[in-house]
Amino acid sequence: MFYQQKTLNCNGKLISIEQPLVMGILNVTPDSFFDGGKYQNEKAVLDRAEQILNEGGNIIDVGGMSSRPNAEIIDVDEELQRVIPVIEKLSTTFPEAIISIDTVQSEVANRACEAGASMINDISGGNIDNAIFDAAIKNKVPYILMHILGTPKNMQDNPKYENVVLEILDYFIEKIGKLREKEMIDIIVDPGFGFGKSIDHNYQILKKLHIFKMLEVPIMVGLSRKSMIYKVLETDAQNALNGTTALHMIALQQGARLLRVHDVKEAVETVKLWNQIDSMNSSQQNN
C-alpha cells in the first residue's frame, strides 16, 4: 500500500482527490488535433466552460498552444493574448471554478495565475523553461509534471526506450526530487500518452500505470481521443469516444486520480461507475 494524497491546495482552494477528478479541456487554439478552432470567441469559450462544469467537471484546463505532433512552441506574447483574457473572463464568470493553465512557459504560467488560474499543467516537465517550477511555487498552485521525449516538434520521430515504464519512472523520481528540494508541495504526474511514444509504448504504460503509485503523488492521464485509440480501432479522433471511455476505466483501475478529457459527461459517468466498484471493494476489505 502506498500513501494516497487526499487534497490539492489550489492557491487557497482546497479540493479533495479522495475520488478521481475530471479535467475538461478548453483549447483556445486554431490547430489542436481534435477541437482546434472551436472556441475562438467569448460566447463559445463561456459556453464550453459552462458545459464542463454542468457535466460535473472539476477543473477547466485552458491551453493556448497546440502540442500535437510536429507543433511549434509559439511566441510568449501570442500565447498570452490567447489565454489571459479567457482566464480573466472565466475567473469572474465562474469564481468557484478551478482553472488550470496548460503551458510550457513560465511567464504565461505566472500571468495566468495572476488572472485567476490555480493549477499549472506543463507538458514539458520544465525542460523548455525550468523557471516554470518557480512559478508554481510562487503562486502556491499544484504543478502537473508530464513526461515527454523531446518536444512536440520531434517527439514522434521514432521514439525508442529500453524499458518505457522504468525510464519514465526514473524521470519522475529525478524531477520530483528537484521539486521537493524547492519545497513544492502539490505535484501531479502524467506519463504523457502520445508524447514521444509509439502505440505499443502507450499500452505498456497503461497496463503498468499502477507502478507510478509508488511515487506517492496523484496520477493524471490524458488519453482522450488520441491516436493510440483510433489507430487501433481503425477510425479517427471524431469516432474515438467509446475507446476513450474503455481506456479511462482501465486507467482508474490502475490508480489514475485525474482524467483530462474532451468529453466530460462520459468521463464523469465512468468515474461514478468506478467509484461504485471501489466502494464495494473497500467494504469487503473492512468486513
Plain-language structure description:
The protein is of the alpha/beta class and 287 residues long. The chain has a single domain (7-286), classed as TIM Barrel. Helices cover 41% and strands 15% of the residues. The chain contains 9 helices and 10 strands. It has helices spanning 42-54, 76-93, 106-115, 131-139, 164-181, 199-207, 227-230, 241-253, 264-286; strands spanning 7-10, 13-16, 21-27, 59-63, 98-102, 119-122, 143-146, 187-190, 220-221, 258-261. The longest helix has 23 residues, at 264-286. The two termini are 18 Å apart.
CATH topology: TIM Barrel
Say which CATH homologous superfamily is assigned. Dihydropteroate synthase-like
Low-pLDDT stretches are none
CATH architecture: Alpha-Beta Barrel
Percentage of residues in helical conformation: 40-55%
Please tell me the total number of domains. 1
Number of helices: 9
Spatial sequence of strands, sheet with the most strands: 8-7-6-5-4-3-10-9
The level 1 CATH classification is Alpha Beta
Distance between the termini: 18 Å
Form type:
globular
The overall pLDDT average reads: 92
β-strand amount: 5-15%
Order of helices and strands: EEEHEHEHEHEHEHEHHEH
How many beta-strand runs?
10
Biggest beta sheet summary: 8 strands, parallel
- Radius of gyration based on Cα positions: 18 Å
Structural class: alpha/beta
